[in-house]
Amino acid sequence: MDRRDLKIIFMGTPEFAQTNLKALIDGGFNVVLALCQPDKPVGRKHILTAPPVKVLAQENGIEVFQPDTLKTEEALEKLSSYNADLIVTAAYGKILPKAVLDLPRYGCINCHGSLLPARRGSAPVQRAVLEGDKVTGITFMKMDVGMDTGDIIEKIEVEIDPNEHTETLMNRLAIASAEKLPSIIDAWVDGRLTATKQDDSLATSCPPIRPEEGEFSWDQDALDIHNRVRALSAWPGAFVMKGENKLKVLDSEVLEDEAMVPEDLKDSVSGTVVKAKGENLIVKCGKGYLKVKELQVPGGKRLMSRDCAHNFTVGNPIM
After folding, report:
1. Predicted pLDDT at 93
2. Are 12 and 92 spatial neighbours (Cβ–Cβ below 8 Å)?
3. Beta bridge partners of 9
4. Are strands 40-42 and 30-35 parallel, antiparallel or unpaired?
5. What is the maximal distance between C-alpha atoms in the chain?
6. Cα separation of 8 and 203, whole Å?
7. Alpha helices, DSSP H only, in the chain?
8. What integer pLDDT is reported at residue 1 of this predicted model?
9. Element (H, E) at 206
10. Cα separation of 201 and 189, whole Å?
């Protein structure tokens, strides 16, 4: 089928979705409607801000629909009125009701940020980084009424760098998805692809990130702390508490060369600064040492360690 003859409804909200929508627009597909979450207040001044998909859709003259729910007659009538051939979703944030799934003749394709059936749920990328996965990917899935339980059309594997943060990985996954999505749609509507059932016995779930998951203790393994830092740096941030005071660690590395640690400090209690010079702000952990690269002290602003390491005292607790 000619891409211009295929009427597509796109559903998605953040940058990951925007990148995929752009691939459809640039690929010459006929996107007739874009759905995204409602505008939300952003920043300290709570300025009402449109999500990235809305911005891109409006720039390209595509009508935008931002319902609070798809489980209303109004929403269903609205979607039905477009007589779409296909629905494509990417990080939309809602499960589609069966009545919506049944609308398009080619069904609904989802671009999911994991290698299903692993990491079903709403935070697959953050959980993959948090748990130290070495590989993740994109799964193109024919949606059903479950949470990421639909049949798999195709997968792409993406390696995770051990020092990579969620935001960078999310960008790379979005690009990988967007590069493949147009050809997936072409093959799907032409009947050259078949979907395969997921093996539910291999499924794992990944619920939303909770704010309290950002907290860590220096008694933990340095690698576990490092994974928390890079997984949650955008939100809620990795932090350690002392009383009411919160120290945020925004970027880090696990120290590979423990010869950098003075012998007389290797048996220090967890949380002790063992080196504080130049770019090297190194803290003793329950196992190993964490090289703090960027941090935010209580009441202070974000600082690179090279700009503030001299403020810390070797042999003392970091906070």
Report:
1. 85
2. yes
3. 33, 87
4. unpaired
5. 74
6. 30
7. 15-26, 52-59, 73-80, 98-101, 124-130, 166-189, 222-232, 305-308
8. 83
9. strand 205-206
10. 30
